[in-house]
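Predict structure. Chain length: 439.
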Amino acid sequence: MTAADSVTDVVVIGGGPAGSTAAALLAERGHRIVLLEKARHPRFHIGESLLPANLPLFRRLGIASEVHAVGIEKWGVEFYSPVHGRMQTYAFADGWNKEMPHAYEVRRSELDEILIRRAGALGATVVEGCRATDVEFAGDEGVRVHAEHEDGARETWRARFLIDASGRDTFLGTRLRTKRRNPRHNSSSMYAHFRGAWRHEEPRRAGDISIFWFEHGWFWYIPLADGITSVGVVVWPYYMKQRTKPVREYFLETIALSPALAERLSGAELASEVEATGNYSYQCTQPCGESYLLAGDAYAFIDPVFSSGVLFAMQGGAAAAEALDLALREPARRAAALRRFARVSRHGPRAFSWFIYRMTRPAMQELFMDPHNPFRVREALLSLLAGDIYGGTPIWNALRAFKMLYYGVSALMPGRSLAAARRRALNLRSPGADAAAAG
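Prediction complete.
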C-alpha cells in the first residue's frame, strides 16, 4: 500500500440500482463502503418500467414513499398483435401471488438519484464524477481500485472486495475477458421520449406499459408521471443494418410500421434526442471471483421485453450485500456466500430467457393473445411478468405446463413455426448491428 491509498471494506463501481442497493445495505450493516459513480446524479438512463417485485426492495431500503412520489402506478401490461388486430391486457393482480398487484413507471434519473442518495444517507461514501480506471487483484489482501476524478485528480482505494455494478460498461467483464455475446439472442434498439402522447382515460390504466409486436421486432410504450412517454423499439440486427439515414428519421419511419402505435403518437412531439444501441445481449462467464462480484448489467443483459432490468439489478445488489456481509463478518464462510450469490445472479436471466427467446414466435403470440388458465398457467405467467421469481410462490410446475402448451401450439402451425425458427437462426448469425446503430 502506498501513502496515496485509502482503505475501505468494499469498493462499488457504479451508482445505478445495483451499485446503490449493494452500497446502501452494506453500509447499513456497518461496513465501510466507497461508491464510485462516473457521472453526477441526476443523469439520464433508459429502462423506466419497474416490476411489482421491486416494491419489497424499495420498502427494505426505506424509500417506498419517495419512489411513489416520482412514479406513476403500473397495474398491468398490454400486448398488441398486428396479426390479431387487437390488444390483450394482463393485470398483475390476477397473478398467483395477490400481494404484488402493481408497480411503477419512473424516470430513471429520479429513481437512480433516490437510490444513490439513500446509500449515502446510510453511511456509504459516495464519490460522483469519478471513473474507475483499473483494478489490481492482490490475493488475500483484496483489491486496489484506481480511479480518476472529473478534474483529472487520481485516487486509489484498497478494499477487501470489489462490486462491479458498472452497467453496460462491464468494467470487470471487459478487463477479465469474461464477457460473451449471448449466442441465443441478438438485438438492437432505438428509443426516445415523446410529449403529448395518448394516455388511457381510466386512471388505473394510465401507467400500464404497452408492447407492440411488428414485423421486425417489438416496441415499448411507457407512460411517465410528468406527461412524457418513453417509446423504444427492439429489432433484429438486419433491420439496423438497413439504415441509410439519420437515426431520428429512421426511428420515426420505424414507428410508422406499427399503425396502432403511430396512432397513439399522432399528436405527440419528440421531447429528447433519439438514441440507438447495437447488439446488447450478453453475459459474463462468472458472476463472481475470490474478491469481486458482478451485479446487474455488469454481469448480464437480456432483451428488456419484460422490464426485468431494474429488478435483476436490485436483486443482484441485495444478494451481493448479503454475500459480502457474511464474508466480511465470517471469512471462513466466504466461499459458501459467493456460491449462493452466483446462484441468485444466474436465476433471474435463466428464468426469463426461455420466454424472451421465443417472444416474437407465432405460437407465443397466439398464447399471449388468447390466454387460458389450465394448470394455473396464466397466473404463473403473470407472476413471472411481475418478477415474482425469487420467493416461494409455487409457479414453476405451471410454467413448465405453459412451455408444453407452447410446443403444442407450435406443432399446430408447422409452416409459420418453421419459418420463424429459420428467420431467428439467420438473425442470430447476423453481424454488424453495433456499427449500424452507432453510425
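Summary: The first helix runs from residue 17 to 28.
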